[in-house]
Specification:
Elements lengths: L10 H13 L4 E8 L2 E11 L2 E9 L8 H13 L5 E3 L6 H6 L15 H20 L20
Parallel strand pairs: 3-4
Antiparallel strand pairs: 1-2, 2-3
């Protein structure tokens, strides 16, 4: 198994997503995928003019053999085909994104230090990370396996 993190376990993150939906509703596109009346995947995207930025897609790990993440993207693209000119998969390079398009770009990281050794260290780490993304794209990550965990209302 790959590493996992539960972004919704922290109140700050839950509040962030609630506020996105509340205050940016004209730019947010949320989609859910159900299997046997159970939500198994979702995608959160931003729409602006003729561009859709795929911000966050996740699925329940036990349904991975159904390819719910890819299925979500196919349905999303189909639903937006007459509304957008560009679908941006956003940051990160992964095998599922490469199945949809061979095009990618690296987003930039900005580092600053007066110490040249620190700058060299940061550049080396960043280059190694980029090479790893290209040579070993992540497959079947469990980054958000707690997506459908229910939290108490007062959190």
């Amino acid at each position: 198994h790959t590493r996992s993190r539960d972004i919704f376990s922290k109140k700050e993150n839950r509040d962030f997503y609630k506020n996105l939906v509340k205050y940016c509703k004209n730019f947010i596109h949320l989609s859910f995928l159900y299997y046997a009346n159970k939500p198994i995947a979702y995608t959160c995207s931003f729409l602006y003019k003729k561009t859709c930025l795929g911000y966050h897609t996740s699925y329940l790990y036990e349904y991975r053999k159904l390819s719910p993440g890819k299925t979500m993207i196919v349905y999303l693209l189909e639903s937006l085909k007459n509304k957008i000119d560009l679908f941006d998969f956003s940051g990160g390079l992964s095998s599922y994104k490469q199945k949809f398009t061979p095009n990618y770009y690296f987003q930039y990281n900005v580092y600053f230090s007066k110490n040249s050794l620190v700058m060299l260290w940061w550049k080396t780490i960043n280059t190694a990370r980029r090479v790893k993304q290209i040579l070993f794209p992540e497959k079947h990550t469990r980054d958000h396996e707690f997506l459908f965990t229910k939290y108490e209302k007062n959190n």
